[in-house]
Amino acid sequence: MAARRALKAVLVDLNGTLHIEDAAVPGAQEALKRLRGTSVMVRFVTNTTKESKQDLLERLRKLEFEISEDEIFTSLTAARSLVEQKQVRPMLLVDDRALPDFKGIQTNDPNAVVIGLAPEHFHYQVLNQAFRLLLDGAPLIAIHKARYYKRKDGLALGPGPFVTALEYATDTPATVVGKPETTFFLEALRSTGCSPEEAVMIGDGNTERQTRRKSALLPTSLARASRRPWITSCSTCCEPLWQRNREQLETRSGWVPHRSAPGSLRADRVLPLFSCALIRKKGIELQPATKPR
């Protein structure tokens, strides 16, 4: 019988989970404090390419989140690492506020294309310049391929559609470095010293769907309720986590991970460590669980 592994680390998505632009998700600060009160290590992961890590940290601190810079792992960090590894001079299709994370990288006479979320640069002339570089053999590095992201005024197009357009036009596959790629999560976990089997990912609905589709490394859980408060779970990943960590979750929080439907886990039972508040904001009241008979 395989030895049970303890839950040692939690990766928490940022935008859409702790905050949406300049507004904190109601109850998120208290939720994070509760999580900090356990022995679990916490790291924060994000695909944001709209701002540098330092700007992001300042934003989070203004929202009263107690987070240190070394706890944040961004897709910009992953992109810079790949650029340095390949020793290329990138055409940077990123927001101007993200440029500090590429300080020192040579961009004159570019021979590669790095693309993130850059609404101000997504116009014909710039995209056509990237198109021509790719036709000449330049590699295409996508910071991530999210279809959309959350803003205060609703959903907005992410970089994914623009990456796909360049791939299609040039028949050049992109190397993707951000969530939900397996390498991204491994790098994020590196500082914890934990294996994927000892960690769980907490994110919003889009994070959960992408991670489940692209990476089998981490069980994923919703930190907010969607229209249906169910998490479709992977039989080889999420179910073992539920079995392994049931006693820990019950002991630390008073909530029992509860098997609610075939192939699914209740969001309000999987996430007791994090908080009830993030789910309650959508109108789903949580009750202390009773042990399944």
From TrEMBL:
The keyword Ion transport does not apply. The keyword Metal-binding applies. Keywords: Magnesium, Metal-binding. InterPro entries: HAD-like_sf (IPR036412), HAD-SF_hydro_IIA (IPR006357), HAD_sf (IPR023214), LHPP/HDHD2 (IPR006355). Belongs to the HAD-like hydrolase superfamily. PANTHER family: 4-NITROPHENYLPHOSPHATASE-RELATED (PTHR19288), HALOACID DEHALOGENASE-LIKE HYDROLASE DOMAIN-CONTAINING PROTEIN 2 (PTHR19288:SF46). This is Haloacid dehalogenase-like hydrolase domain-containing protein 2. It comes from Oryctolagus cuniculus (Rabbit). The gene is HDHD2.
